[in-house]
Design a protein that fits this description.
By secondary structure, the chain is of the alpha+beta class. The protein is built from 19 helices and twelve strands. The chain has a single domain, classed as Orthogonal Bundle (Cytochrome p450), CATH 1.10.630.10. Strands 1-2-10-7-3 form a five-stranded mixed sheet. Strands 4-12-11 form a three-stranded antiparallel sheet. Strand 8 and strand 9 form a beta hairpin. Helix 12 crosses helix 14, helix 15 crosses helix 16 and helix 15 crosses helix 17. The longest helix has 27 residues.
Length: about 425
């Protein structure tokens, strides 16, 4: 990617591991040469400009994310793998990814648990988990940050919100990784079969948890979903949620509530290594931590992009896109759009529009856990910067390589050394 070979859109293939390792060189070419570009390798129109993506996500009926997407671009490609759901589990259904008007009904069930106010009420719990994790390794002076902190923290928090016991976290993390794996695209049949099998294990675990909470309900999302009723838009009647719906809402929140926050925390550490002046300023003034969180989400967006399905013929920047097409909305490209952000590749703790980034999308389908993720990151860096000094990379162990896939931006590992703060 650094050999200067990328200068034209037709040289860019999102399935190329070199491109996935350095999205931003590719985005610069597309911004300059083809903001709307049909990429034959993925069969989608790639959208990279901030204004275009913002307008698309604000029109959820013209550009949809629900079952029409799965019919056109199924997440599980092989029929043999899809058949496992019918044989051993439940169909893979994501109610929170439904189209309007169903989407609003499902979101209305979970949004009250994830508002900024509801999240802040969990601050003592969140800070206690952060401090407990740090206590476990602060005397070591060196850790692999993802395994020892960025992975367990968000899982501890979302498991508490959903109502899963702490003792099951290792299995939940394994199942979470299996749920996300198909988004990397290009899996073999064997890989899909394994991912589906592990997702079915998660489905059965959720179902067993549901049975327990029917007997002993608690103050958590799963207990709430078991009691909730929804207005069925097809029959016009009010009814309880089905098992498939509860399982689908729960596994979506589990994955959304931990994976992207893990990626964002590790990306944040990487940015501190790359911008030592930012680190020094944060240590001197932790009031800038919230701004730092927004800049991390913008500069190194954990979700680089997602799908949209086009429900009617449209024209964007003079490019005619026919009904039935698939779009790849590149949030990571929008967040580094020089027409929207000055010096977009830099972390700027004084940037006035940092919070306008699209890392969590916008509109009807913005990430339901955005407030929770932001708050976890804020608390994490506030405490890490208070308790640790001289945070620095372990150069001999860090290669800063990323997991492959076309949607996520995630480091494989990141090692750091540190001193105890005075």
């Amino acid at each position: 990617m650094d050999d200067g070979s990328l200068s034209r859109p037709d040289q860019i293939n999102f399935m190329d591991p070199r491109v996935q390792e350095d999205w931003f060189s590719a985005y610069e070419v597309l911004h300059r040469e083809a903001p709307i570009y049909f990429m034959p390798e993925i069969g989608m129109y790639v959208i990279t400009k901030y204004e275009d993506i913002r307008e698309i996500v604000r029109q959820p009926e013209r550009f949809t994310v629900g079952p029409d997407v799965q019919q056109t671009e199924p997440l599980i490609k092989f029929p043999e793998a899809r058949a496992l759901y019918d044989q051993k589990g439940w169909r893979r259904y994501t109610p929170l990814g439904e189209n309007l008007p169903k989407h609003r009904h499902y979101r209305g069930l979970v949004d009250p648990f994830l508002t900024p106010l509801a999240v802040r009420q969990r601050e003592p719990f969140i800070r206690a988990q952060i401090n407990e994790l740090i206590d476990g390794w602060i005397d070591k002076g060196e850790i692999e940050f993802i395994a020892d902190f960025a992975d367990p923290l968000p899982m501890l928090v979302i498991a508490e919100v959903l109502g899963f016991p702490r003792m099951d976290l290792p299995a939940l993390k394994r199942w979470s990784a299996a749920w996300v794996l198909p988004f990397s695209r290009g899996l073999t049949l064997e890989q899909e079969m394994k991912a589906v099998s592990e997702h079915i294990e998660l489905q059965n675990y959720i179902f067993e948890t549901m049975k327990e909470k029917r007997r002993n309900p608690k103050d958590d999302i799963i207990s709430h979903l078991l009691r909730a009723e929804i207005d069925d838009v097809e029959t016009g009647e009010t009814r309880p949620l089905t098992d498939v719906e509860i399982i689908g809402v729960t596994d979506h929140l589990l994955i959304g509530g931990n994976e992207t926050t893990t990626f964002a925390l590790s990306n944040g550490l990487w940015l501190l290594f790359r911008f030592p002046d930012v680190y020094q300023r944060l240590t001197a003034d932790r009031s800038k931590v919230r701004q730092f969180v927004e800049e991390v989400l913008r500069v190194e967006s954990p979700t680089q992009g997602l799908y949209r399905y086009v429900t009617e013929d449209v024209e964007i920047r003079g490019c005619k896109i026919p009904k039935g097409s698939m779009l790849s909305l590149r949030y990571g490209a929008a967040n580094r759009d020089a027409d929207q952000y000055r010096c977009p590749h830099m972390v700027d703790l004084d940037r006035t529009n940092a919070g306008t980034h699209l890392a969590f999308s916008l509109g009807e389908h913005h990430c339901p856990g955005a407030s929770l993720s932001r708050f976890e990151q804020y608390c994490a860096w506030d405490i890490l910067l208070a308790r640790l000094a001289n945070i620095r990379p372990v150069e001999a162990k860090n290669d800063y390589r990323h997991l492959h896939g076309i949607w996520m931006r995630a480091l494989e590992a990141i090692h750091m050394r540190f001193d105890k703060a005075a």
